[in-house]
Design brief:
The protein is built from 17 helices and 12 strands. The protein is α+β, with helices and mostly antiparallel strands.
């Protein structure tokens, strides 16, 4: 992070990307979720609940930080169709903080009111949408996927009209943590508007704060670094069985974290055609097409960087992603299996295991759970209700798994490996929500979050890039 610039650093881009906005005024504020583990990492863990509500429902500025909320302007390809009429339409950047590791963290909102980019939207978020984002981020963090983290959810007392869930719907405001709020679409907007000087400023800011080993004007080096981050992110999403649903360029950030969870799914089985968004009629962002979609988005970023770099060089740099994806996927899946990476000695292991899981239609998370630890977890595997599948059709691929060295096999001593793994199949998500919607019963939700965190603690899969 730069030490000679303004604090917080994003203020250097105020004229380039940011518009000051006023947060919505809500009729009530009921704290529904407070992520103290994440808050501790950015120095907010000691806030009282009263101060928490003041900052994250009323958006009273944090001390020595942004003077007020700022909405970010960006364009983007939405389902690969360019849209210049977007931006932070129901959220804003609220603050920047330094994490415990010294890295910059952006606090962004969702459901915090209208902005100049809202168009016809009301700027609000349903409580169910916030609830779903909590679950997605908790599970992805547990499974080692680079992701935003939900910091806060506060129910706000408004009744919202929505066409895709029962109305009137309860309302909420959410605060999330990302390493960066800067999106691919931020670069696209400045290029589309022919603002080359501002584009150079954005590149310089991005490199100084997130890729400091590069020179400030190294567009090709920046694209290469982002491509490596995105290869890791997409590989770990696949190894988690996660379908994002809306992989648009405005939902890609430069630090390589998955974020902005709307119609997500965790795959019940390895089904490459599974989609999460009911409006994804062509399956553009289906489970098996996610790496391809992210590669397409990187090409859009490369195109946006052309005013600052040699076009031929940028085109060559794009090949970093497919070259990096195969080893990243092997690493991601072997991490999930608790064994040393099979790559390059057995470069097809990860894809062959996915093929086996697909052909046998095995429940994805249960199978990964059973196979965790490789040869060190054979006793656990033998106790599984799927044991016969592993003994018959799976014999060849599991022999390759057992040939890999278990990584930190003491993890198998965690009590959760004597239980069932937590899952977030859509029926479970809806059942837990029904308890909230029908009886305002948050206990099943709290229990699910607790089990997911226990699973994450047992797996010990750090997602930091």
């Amino acid at each position: 992070m730069t030490s000679d610039s303004v604090w917080p650093p994003i203020l250097s881009l105020q004229e380039v990307l940011l518009t000051p906005v006023e947060p919505a005024s809500f009729p009530s504020a009921i704290l529904r979720y407070r992520n103290d583990r994440a808050a501790d990492e950015v120095g907010l863990g000691t806030l009282s609940d009263e101060d928490w509500l003041a900052h994250f429902a009323q958006f009273t500025p944090l001390a020595d930080n942004l003077p007020g909320p700022m909405a970010m302007a960006y364009h983007g390809h939405q389902f690969q169709v360019y849209n210049p009429d977007i931006g932070d339409g129901r959220g804003f950047l609220f603050a920047q903080l330094e994490g415990a590791d010294g890295r910059l963290m952006d606090l962004g909102t969702k459901g915090s009111g209208q902005t100049p980019f809202s168009r016809t939207g009301d700027g609000r978020l349903t409580l169910k949408g916030a609830y779903r984002e909590i679950l997605a981020t908790e599970m992805l963090e547990a499974l080692g996927v680079p992701t935003s983290r939900t910091l806060s959810v506060i129910e706000t007392g408004e009744k919202l009209a929505r066409h895709d869930e029962p109305s009137p719907a309860r309302s909420a405001v959410l605060v999330r943590l990302n390493h960066s709020h800067i999106r691919f679409g931020s670069f696209q907007r400045l290029t589309a508007l022919d603002r080359t000087d501002d584009l150079a400023s954005l590149l310089s800011y991005s490199i100084q704060n997130f890729f400091p080993d590069l020179s400030d004007d190294d567009a090709a080096g920046f694209l290469e670094a982002v491509s490596h981050r995105m290869a890791t992110m997409s590989a770990r999403m696949m190894a988690a069985g996660f379908v994002h649903g809306v992989l648009n360029t405005d939902n890609m950030n430069i630090t390589g974290e998955s974020f902005d969870y709307g119609p997500w799914r965790f795959a019940p089985t390895v089904d490459p055609n599974l989609t999460a968004a009911y409006f994804d009629h062509q399956g553009l962002y289906a489970f098996g097409r996610q790496p391809q979609a992210i590669y397409w988005n990187l090409a859009a970023l490369a195109d946006a960087l052309r005013p600052l770099g040699d076009a031929e060089t940028l085109q060559k740099v794009l090949e970093v992603f497919p070259d990096a994806y195969a080893p990243a996927f092997s690493d991601a899946l072997c991490r999930r299996l608790g064994v040393d990476d099979a790559y390059p000695d057995d470069p097809s292991f990860a894809s062959d295991l996915f093929t086996f899981l697909h052909n046998e239609e095995l429940p994805f998370e249960r199978a990964i759970f059973d196979l965790f630890g490789g040869s060190a977890g054979q006793e656990k595997r033998a106790r599984s209700r799927l044991a016969s599948c592993y003994e018959d059709e799976g014999r060849a691929i599991l022999a390759r798994l057992d040939a890999l060295t278990p990584a930190a096999p003491e993890r198998l001593n965690h009590p959760i490996f004597a239980e069932e793994p937590p899952t977030l199949i859509i029926d479970e998500v809806e059942e837990i929500w029904a308890a909230i919607a029908d009886r305002d019963d948050w206990q099943p939700f709290a229990a699910k979050c607790a089990k997911i965190r226990a699973y994450g603690d047992a797996l010990a899969l750090p997602a930091a890039q």
